[in-house]
């Protein structure tokens, strides 16, 4: 590719993740998006991962057991002149630090909310990561075909619970059985409700928002109410502001029903108009690296181990930040300065793993890894080393005491634990008073993977004792007095020897703050 081709190819990319609480409809909407993208798949492929209907032999054992798949981690399709990359953010019991880290690799996010439930805990956590990054967030309020909460109530919640301004791009006319359509504020038209399979049908509006010609709507009173609500929003709500959207300060809100494929296309069309192309990335010395820079570069945001003992390889997921990737190219690994040949790469599609030939900034590639890579590593070509900013640490919430089952096998235990912790599989802490090892994670799956890999890769059987949920808060070492620790706020140190307390619950944290008002406690994120 010459420079012009590269710039053009990069500008076409739109890379995002869908964030939601389990059951809000992320899978359903992803399927609809893939269908619009013309990705030919057997119906229900994304779905099938939940029922475990897969028979491919080389998948990780835990993957198979849980029905999650590497291949659904990244989905790519072309639509309306854009190349769309959707990154999966696993939820349920598969929620892990990787879920958070995936959000480091996208340029925008789509937040799916169940109209009956509003904002749920996992949505909130994932939202906060997006917020910290300042990336655009688009909201899709789902399940309009069912009775849900009042639209005004739902948009108010965005502001109150998440602290983000919102701008409704459209507004439901009715709900549940009474759903008649969407008042499309942005396009100034009405989209009539159609059941799945039928195309879109629009009604034109005059400058007062009145339907031109005869109205096919059944409930005139509901339509009047919609017009009143829209007046209210236009008067008292936030204005449409591209800059605020770009900075993640205002979220455009779309309503719809993923299941009946209503409002999804409208959402996708508008989304692709405003979703950002691959962003510049900050590199050391505070410089910005343009995505169409001719040097290839990227960082590793996730490493997925192969659980099959016969295949020790892992897949390192790379977000390409600049330039073009070609199979077989040589790159430098910034951490070690070593040169590596990237001959074994893979692209991810909904149902196949395809060998990838080229990719550009904005794309995600998977590299077969035999142990060269760590999470957060930068790789690059060219004479000048490129190092991306460190990935943030996320505060673990679940904890386990861990020790080697066989005390004679300390060596393999330590080797395994060190490597897995370095890889970012789990966090490791050590108790101040007893020296015991404690593992921290944001999701239960991380512990299971840890245990499995300790056995399979390091021949170390571990004994783990659940400690349950804790609130981890770091403390300034200068303010620390070991006497502050009690059974309800266990004092531990992290891998960098920084002290932190593991509080039993919020009450214990509050009690501590009251007792030591001058002590600063910080969460990582
Ligand atoms: P995920 O856990 O967020 O991936 O959620 P799914 O896409 O698996 O959806 C959870 C459940 O909600 C499934 O039973 C879906 O069929 C259902 N669902 C998803 N979207 C809609 C919708 O628009 N309307 C209704 N009525 N059900 C939906």
TrEMBL record:
One of its GO terms (biological process) is regulation of translational termination. One of its GO terms (cellular component) is cytosol. It comes from the Bacteria. InterPro entries: EF-G-like_DII (IPR053905), EFG_III/V (IPR035647), G_TR_CS (IPR031157), P-loop_NTPase (IPR027417), PrfC (IPR004548), RF3_C (IPR032090), RF3_dom_3_sf (IPR038467), RF3_GTP-bd (IPR041732). GTP binds at residues 20-27, 88-92, 142-145. GO terms for molecular function: GTP binding; GTPase activity; translation release factor activity, codon nonspecific; translation release factor activity, codon specific. Residues 11-279 form the Tr-type G domain. It is found in: Cytoplasm. SUPFAM superfamilies: EF-G C-terminal domain-like, P-loop containing nucleoside triphosphate hydrolases, Translation proteins. Pfam families: EF-G_D2, GTP_EFTU, RF3_C. Keywords: Cytoplasm, GTP-binding, Nucleotide-binding, Protein biosynthesis. PANTHER family: PEPTIDE CHAIN RELEASE FACTOR RF3. Belongs to the TRAFAC class translation factor GTPase superfamily. Classic translation factor GTPase family. PrfC subfamily. Increases the formation of ribosomal termination complexes and stimulates activities of RF-1 and RF-2. It binds guanine nucleotides and has strong preference for UGA stop codons. It may interact directly with the ribosome. The stimulation of RF-1 and RF-2 is significantly reduced by GTP and GDP, but not by GMP. This is Peptide chain release factor 3. The gene is prfC.
